[in-house]
Amino acid sequence: MRKMFIGAVALVALTGGAEAGWVGKASYYKLGGRTASGGHVGAYTAAHRTLPFGSRVRVTNLVNNRSVVVTINDRGPFRGGRVIDVSATAADALGFRSAGVAHVKVEPVSAIAEAQ
Q1: Which domains does the chain have, with CATH numbers?
Q2: What is the C-alpha to C-alpha distance for residues 8 and 61, in angstroms, rounded to an integer?
Q3: What's the number of CA atoms in the CB half-sphere (13 Å) around residue 3?
Q4: What is the β-pairing status of strands 45-47 and 82-87?
Q5: Nearest CA to 30 among 16, 20, 45?
């Protein structure tokens, strides 16, 4: 019940205003083991510090205007100034894998309330 409440609060907080979301740096990562949710890094997955696992967000590279929708299944990034870590495949689609970091906007698409 508590996770469902937190998920609902996160969704309301993110969709409440015209400027919903985050703007900052994104990086990419490849993991060999499991993510914080117990899953694996997939083609279009990402790590975020606070969004509930299963939430989907649109990440837009503000330099080239490319965007992808990723599913949050890990925690992070833990480096200052970064708002999201995306999978290597998502970084390729966003056009910043060779650079390693990009200036992005992160917008909520949906939040999954986990009723466990």
Answers
A1: 2-110 (2.40.40.10)
A2: 27
A3: 10
A4: antiparallel
A5: 45
Cis amide prior to 77 (ω within 30 degrees)? yes
Residue 104 three-state SS: strand
The Cβ-side half-sphere exposure at 90, using a 13 Å CA radius, reads 30
Per-residue pLDDT tens digits for 71-90: 999 999 988 889 999 999 99
**What's the pLDDT tens digit per position in 1-31?**
445 444 444 444 444 444 478 999 999 988 7
Cα dist from 66 to 27, 34, 71, whole Å: 15, 28, 17
51 contacts: CB under 8 Å, gap ≥ 6:
10, 57, 72, 108, 111
Helices (H) and strands (E) in the chain, counts: 2, 6
Helix (H, G, I), strand (E, B) or coil at 2: helix
Cα separation, 64 vs 66, in Å, equals 6
